[in-house]
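Design review, sub-item: ligand-bound model
Attendees: FS, YL, KQ
YL presented the inputs for the zinc ion complex:
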Amino acid sequence: MQVWPSAKIRAHLGVALGLALAGLAGAAFGAWPWTAAALGLGLGAGWYLWMAGRYHRRRSLVAEPFPEPWRKILNRRVDFYRSLDSDDARRRFEDDVRIFLAEQQVYGAGEGDARLEIDDETRLLIAASAAILGHGMPDLEWPRMRDIVVHPRAFDENYSGEGDAHISGMVHYQGPILYSERDLKLGFRRHDGHNVGLHELAHVLDLADGAADGVPAGAAWVSSAPWLEIVSDRLRKLRQHRYPHVLRDYAGTNEAEFFAVAVESFFERPRKLRDKDPELYTMLSEYFGQDPAKTPQRRSPRKFR
Ligand SMILES: [Zn+2]
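KQ shared the predicted structure:
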């Protein structure tokens, strides 16, 4: 995410000034000078606040020191963050994390006193998932209309955690993102190609162009034949059990799940994915602007409670 995209902000300022000047011109030559002036100035100011206000808020947010307890949690729990090898990369990651948390609604499931209390670690792991996916895409903006609701553990279609509840995360077509807190944390403790934090946000990228078709918005290869061919070829092989063991079987469900599961493996087992399916790895590497197979892996200590 961009903290202060100067060109964009200048363009918004230009429109705002244009509206204000049009109002003043109307005041000088029109029949209702006060009304025209107030309208032009009001519209200009409103436009600027609406379009650029968030960047001012981002700039003051990142001017504050990053909370040290948050840094400790990221260091302990997020291998991707630990593996970043420059101060600049770490600062960008931290900025993405706090901007995400400042702009998104993340809360526990339930009502009133029964609402689940969620801790900083849970919030940070969700924001870190977004920061990992966006680390090589500085212009990526996450849609802000989706609430992120955290359930204590896996849930079923009725959002109940009883019985054979097996859903660890879910994205509604135009609604909230749901996470199981337990599975979210587990996803960052193991490198088994299963990370629900990344998985659900990969669906959000896929849905950004309006369709859950396994083709994320903004990809240079959005409508490109090779990508669609890769997806249908790999889906066929997965279903016939002829695909190497680098994606979870769930990838064979449909195009959308294929993309989300491939993203998990791309970040969790990049070398294995690159070795077993270089074509798929290259497509994802180009889209995300990252080459995680080249990053020296610095794993968290294996002791967890
Ligand atoms: Zn899914």
